[in-house]
Amino acid sequence: MTTERIKKFVGGQAVIEGVMMRGPGYTATAVREPSGSIVVNKEATTSISDRFPILKKPFLRGCVSLYESLIIGMKALSFSAKAAGEDDEEMSNTEIAMTMAFSTVVAIALFLALPTYATKWIPGIGDNHVALNLVEGVIRLVLFLLYIWAIGLTADIKRVFQYHGAEHKTIHTYESDMELTVENVRNHSRLHARCGTNFLLIVMVVSIFVFAFLGWPNLLERIVSRVLLMPVVAGISYEMIRIAGRSENSIVKALITPGLWLQYMTTREPDDDQIEVAIRALQEVRPSEEDAYEED
Q: What letter does residue 288 receive in the DSSP assignment?
């Protein structure tokens, strides 16, 4: 039996005037200060799955990754807001928890409750449970696309989308075993198969099939069941995006193409200063040569 050596994942997120990168050993957020210098916040990457290895199993690891990514992302945003001069101080753990709770409630209302309620106003569906779930999924997807389009009209989010593009380009350069220079990074695509945008689109599609098994109960039961099943949807979607990130299969590539198209909305071409910030963040978390690969 042979094993394949696969380059360890490095993930990231665009923040205010900067980029957060998460490697196997460290997480670093690099931000361009108003003075023009780059400030970095670096911490050891820890996970609850290190204490409970069962959480590293397929489907479970997706839920853990999503939860931890939300926490790390909020902390990175808080640090970047302060470093970029938009806030006087970083958010406390309590404030982060409250923000996450509020954001969760808004997301449930907008992307779960509203679509399943609005479906009843669509004529010609009747009691066809498959059609009802399909229409609900389409409404959810349209709302998601409208949301992305709307926030992308603001100047501040456009800059975040530029840093998002810089993040993707820099990760592509790392995965290609190329030197992390502005010139090398600029030549890569700003689209990436493991992007969170791609993940969210996969979640939208997977949820249609998962929710379809429930039939079409009353409104309250639909909302509750969809909230309770989101970990299942997230687990399935996470495994799919892991496969997409490593596979060269033409069928897999075709299936993730819509997610890549969507990234034309959530990324912009970065300037050299933004690429420098993304490079700095990745340099802080890049594993050593002997630790950069794992057996699969």
A: P
